Amino acid sequence: MRRRTGAVPVGELRLSLRAAEAPQHQRCSVVVEEIEGLLRVYKDGHVERFPVVPEVPCTWLPELEVISGDVVIDPSTRVWARLYAPIAPPRGKLPALVYFHGGGFCVGSAAWRCYHEFLAKVASRAGCLIMSVNYRLSLRTPSGRLRRRHRRREVDPAAGHPRPGTDSMVVEPLRLRKGLPRGDSAGATITHNVSLQIGSRLRGVVLIQPFFGGEARTSSESMAVPPGSALNLAASDAYWRLSRKACKADAAPYLVCIAETDILRDRDMDFCRAMKRAGNTVEAVMHAGVGHAFQVLNSSRVSQSRAQEMISQLRSFLRR
Q1: Which of 84, 104, 185, 218 is least crowded, fewest Cβ atoms below 10 Å from its Cβ?
Q2: Count of CB atoms within 10 A of residue 316's CB?
Q3: Among the options 124, 132, 292, 303, which is catalytic?
Q4: Transmembrane stretches, by residue range (predicted)?
Q5: Structural domains counted in the chain
Q6: Is residue 103 part of a domain?
Q7: Residue 168 phi, psi (nearest 5)
Q8: What would the pLDDT profile of 166-212 be if each residue is shown by its tens digit?
Q9: Residues of the domain holding 113
Q10: At 50, phi and psi to the nearest 5?
């Protein structure tokens, strides 16, 4: 049975849906799942992902006060990461972030322009080192194995090996157990699962609009999706099918960023309450008037203002 969801509303998103006009898979014509404009899954397991967001090299820097480079984490799995560091850092040791991008576990890249721009700003304005992990995407394996893969070496930046020309002095401080894991959407869910394996040894954990799904509808999932939202209910359900929530005491302090008009808002708030009931320290921040992934996919004045608020909140959290 083929499942097809409508195109994600683009509004002011920096997406080019014309790039989604890719040739259909020839070996098998049976499509079992499709998120229009983003990806198509065939019965034989083949997956087509459409390049709707442009990718940029590490040498393209929107922030002049930042340097960037790419490193290989695991050549056998082709997992790599993009590093960011401020050129003129403040005195003392800089806090380190290990970042996991969003994309419903199925799409996304550390090279996506929207993430590159955002993380360069974070490195510059929050004064920190960042390792953005380009992890292996889902769909080639049964969904239940996805998160188990993300708990192992495939997302362990300590295994990194710099590419030729990359400054190893930037690589060395970015060790997962000494850093602060962070991610948005599906990347936040990965961040949560990775952090549970390490526990209170971490300085803290930052989750931005974490992606959790379920069968029972929440109030925020039932509300109308505002124009320009990066996620609608049909796409959220499809991602969740293609790719579960865990709480545990003895975890590091959490900062959870929630978007007011995000359909995931109620699930994110439920997650925060569950974490607190389990004895964890959780600070939840609500960003008013913005939707899912506003910090990377919406260029409106309100979104940019809220993104700057988010960076300031992150800076304060890093320095506690």
Answers
A1: 218
A2: 12
A3: 292
A4: none
A5: 1
A6: yes
A7: -65, -20
A8: 443 344 434 434 568 899 999 999 999 888 888 777 889 999 999 98
A9: 54-318
A10: -100, 135
Q: Distance (Å, rounded) from C-alpha 266 to C-alpha 217?
A: 10
Per-residue pLDDT reduced to its tens digit, 53-83: 999 999 998 777 899 999 998 888 889 999 9
Of 262, 266, 268, 287, catalytic: 262
31-35, strands of its sheet edge to edge: 3-5, 31-35, 39-42, 47-49
d(CA 9, CA 228): 6
Per the listing, tokens 């993104």 go with 307
Q: Which positions ≥6 away from 176 have C-beta within 8 Å?
A: 98, 156, 157, 158, 194, 198
Is 185 in the active site? Answer: yes
Active-site residue flag, 262: yes
Instruction: Extract the runs of DSSP E, i.e. beta strands, from the chain.
Output: 3-5, 31-35, 39-42, 47-49, 66-74, 79-86, 96-100, 129-134, 161-162, 180-184, 205-208, 254-259, 282-287
Domain for residue 139, yes or no? yes
Is residue 183 included in any domain, yes or no? yes
Question: Is position 306 within any domain?
Answer: yes
CB atoms within 10 A of CB 196: 16
